[in-house]
Design goal:
single chain, mainly alpha, 138 residues, two-stranded antiparallel sheet, 5 helices, globular
Length: 138
């Protein structure tokens, strides 16, 4: 039973830029980065985070199906965002996306709990898409 779960305080190594928190979004918004560019950044960072988690997640883990569905969602979003070019977004966002996808950033790694990556993904998604979607809250 326990072999299907992560050990307590288990972490994955991610690039520094792969941790996107609400405070990062607020700072970028204050720097006049458009919501469209922030959503583009969220897509790239979050899809990488889900892939990092899937690399280490045991198939019998309770979150396996959920993360599989997230991968399918990001695949669908990827088709939409494939139309974007780096020049369509602000330079600061384009630079961050390049860093997220670069392989030479090994020195800028940090240990993060998989749950923290998913929590950040959801919190930032709510920040960026919450108003248009209303999330069924009432």
């Amino acid at each position: 039973f326990q072999k299907h779960y992560f050990p307590i305080d288990y972490t994955v190594q991610v690039q520094y830029e792969e941790v996107l928190r609400p405070s990062n979004i607020t700072r970028l918004r204050n720097g006049t980065v458009s919501d469209a560019a922030l959503r583009y950044l969220w897509f790239h960072v979050s899809s990488q985070a889900v892939l990092r988690i899937r690399e280490v997640l045991p198939e019998k883990h309770p979150s396996w199906k959920y993360t599989q569905e997230l991968c399918q969602l990001f695949d669908a979003l990827g088709k939409e965002y494939s139309k974007y070019r780096q020049t369509d977004v602000e330079a600061v966002v384009a630079d961050l996306v390049k860093l997220v996808h670069s392989t030479g950033a090994e020195s800028r790694r940090k240990a993060v709990r998989p749950k923290a990556l998913l929590d950040n993904c959801l919190k930032v998604m709510r920040m960026l898409y919450g108003a248009p979607c209303e999330w069924g809250l009432g």
